[in-house]
Amino acid sequence: MCNTAAHLVDRVAPNVPVRQWVLSLPFELRRLVAFRADVLTAVARIFFETVSADYRRRSGVGSPRAGAVTCVQRFGGSLNLNPHLHVIWLDGVFTFDEGTTRFHPAEPPNRECLERIVRHVARRVVRWLGRKGLLDERVREERSNVPETATSLDACAHVALAPGGFGSAGSPTPAPDDHDEARWSHRQQRFTAEHERFNLHAGVHIPASDDDGRERLCRYALRPCFALKRLSTLPDNRVAYQVKAPRSRRTTHRLMTPLEFLARASALIPPPRFPLVRYHGVLAPNSPHRARVVPRPLAWLPNKCGSRRAAEKHARNARHPDRATSSGTRTPTAGSTVASHTLPCDQKGVTTPAVRLGNLITSSSPTSVSSPSETATVVTFGADGDLPPNMLPIRHWNRLLGGLLLCTSPRLDWATLMRRTHATDVLECSQCQGRLRVLAAITEPDVAREILIRLGQATTAPRPARARDPTWEDGTQTDVPAAE
Length: 484
Description:
A hairpin with a 7-residue loop joins strand 6 and strand 7. The strands form 4 sheets. The chain has a 6-stranded antiparallel sheet. It is an alpha+beta fold. The protein has helices at about 1-10, 30-35, 35-60, 110-130, 150-160, 210-220, 260-265, 310-320, 320-325, 395-400, 415-420, 445-455; strands spanning about 20-25, 65-75, 80-90, 90-95, 100-105, 165, 175, 190-195, 200-205, 230-235, 240, 255, 275-280, 340-345, 355, 360-365, 375-380.
């Protein structure tokens, strides 16, 4: 969740305002969308094409291009199977001229616009399902009553789609409930529209100046299916899960047997080859405009004074200021009002004349270096309002401690992710406040055992708990040992 959110903010989403569009589906389509990748792909594609057409219509510019990231959530607020789409949309359109990339912000959608979009999406989805033969339009009396052969996964999905029982954590018996979670509230909101139980919400807007808000929005869209702090066990061995939106004081928790809880949790796991993060428009991997939109660290900008390998070296120096200082490289600091970064010069050691890359000011002022061959060109950020969309603004750079916590790859290391997410520096010694560093990754069992013996720690893993047969009720059945 946090790793992917950092990747989206630093490497995918440009410096523009974003809006979250949430599409909820009817109860009858949830099983298809949850377990058929082609159905989910079709629904996501139809939704993107419909909203993109609306953005282009409202922009009023020629040849507009939209972009979005779809985060698929398979769960509701009470451990129920409820696949729906959280789409983080670039709230506007791009236009690409020769050497110029412009972003045109869009006005907030009104109620008429949302109703038109949700009607069009519902009509296209139903038409696509009909062409694929996935709709049974016969009346109930003409359908067969012979049950189909169901697998164990189908049984788990049936349990996860069932209403179940709700109550409070101290209630001895659950309160019966036969209402769907999507119909708990019927209040008309400004940025909400519904048609044939297709529900659309577009009320969350993050301005371009709120980089921290964009990252929190990405974390919310990518969050896991349940939170451990909302899960508890009752004295009668039932499992209680606190719902997100309780309707009354008597229905604050979903009450389940342990077997029902396992069935619901199993149904929320996506099948193989079922990606939950999808990129559309200018953010798609095969888009010809992606390189002109996605942000990139300053050291990766195309320039005449260095290769990609040298740029990656300076990006590593940005993450390790102590190494950069020892080599004579100047890097941005967290408290500076103007962030600067050093780019390598050409192989002959000749500084490049001052040039202007977009709104980046490039000067040929030399820095203190240890040898003439390390003469560098200093690139300085301009004002945040003058930066192009694919540039990391100074406020974002400073929030990441001068690039120290920048996500330079799709996978952040553990120490950087902990410091960025929880503001906990795990590489700082608790006694002397010195800096720790990773010496080696021990993977050989004999070496790990020897180290544990020297440290006085146990060298064998604890024995797993003994599993109990599900049919055990009165305590007379013998426990079944767990599989080794």
